[in-house]
């Protein structure tokens, strides 16, 4: 009887080790996705899985948090709209850097919008309502619809 009890306790202990969690760094994101995507290039990505990865990889001017339906500031520290709602002005945060160490500028944002607007392929229609994007200075982006 003692051997059966010891065997049972040993098996119970060994199998319970699989349920012990280990601490992970808070900055680590593990995301299981379907391999059904064509690119992770932000200018060409259109599938839901690729855009899901890109949305947590890159900063956006604004973003939606959780189930919210009002966009919150992300790379922009402020935004304002003209009375007719056709011109939007964003002021950029100054603490966003590329891997190279270069700080994000309004010219970078303009380049990204221009690239999406003129790309051949799926995501180009997303910028159809954008008439123009300008960068009057390093921290200001003006989008005209």
From TrEMBL:
GO terms for cellular component: cell envelope. Its main location: other. InterPro entries: SBP_5, SBP_5_dom. Signal peptide: none annotated. It is found in: Cell envelope. GO terms for molecular function: peptide transmembrane transporter activity. Residues 73-145 form the Solute-binding protein family domain. One of its GO terms (biological process) is peptide transport. Keywords: Signal, Transport. The keyword Signal applies. Belongs to the bacterial solute-binding protein 5 family. PANTHER family: PERIPLASMIC BINDING COMPONENT OF ABC TRANSPORTER, PERIPLASMIC OLIGOPEPTIDE-BINDING PROTEIN-RELATED. This is Solute-binding protein family 5 domain-containing protein. It comes from marine metagenome.
């Amino acid at each position: 009887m003692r051997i059966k009890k010891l065997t049972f306790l040993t098996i119970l202990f060994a199998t319970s080790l699989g349920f012990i969690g280990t601490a992970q760094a808070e900055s680590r994101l593990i995301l299981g996705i379907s391999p059904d995507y064509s690119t992770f290039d932000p200018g060409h990505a259109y599938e839901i899985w690729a855009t899901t990865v890109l949305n947590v990889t890159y900063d956006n001017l604004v973003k939606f948090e959780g189930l919210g339906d009002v966009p919150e500031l992300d790379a922009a520290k402020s935004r304002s709209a003209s009375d007719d709602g056709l011109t939007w002005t964003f002021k950029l945060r100054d603490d966003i850097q590329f891997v190279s160490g270069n700080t994000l500028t309004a010219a970078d944002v303009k380049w990204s919008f221009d690239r999406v607007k003129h790309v051949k392929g799926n995501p180009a229609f997303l910028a159809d309502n954008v008439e123009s994007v300008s960068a009057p200075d390093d921290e200001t982006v003006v989008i005209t619809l």
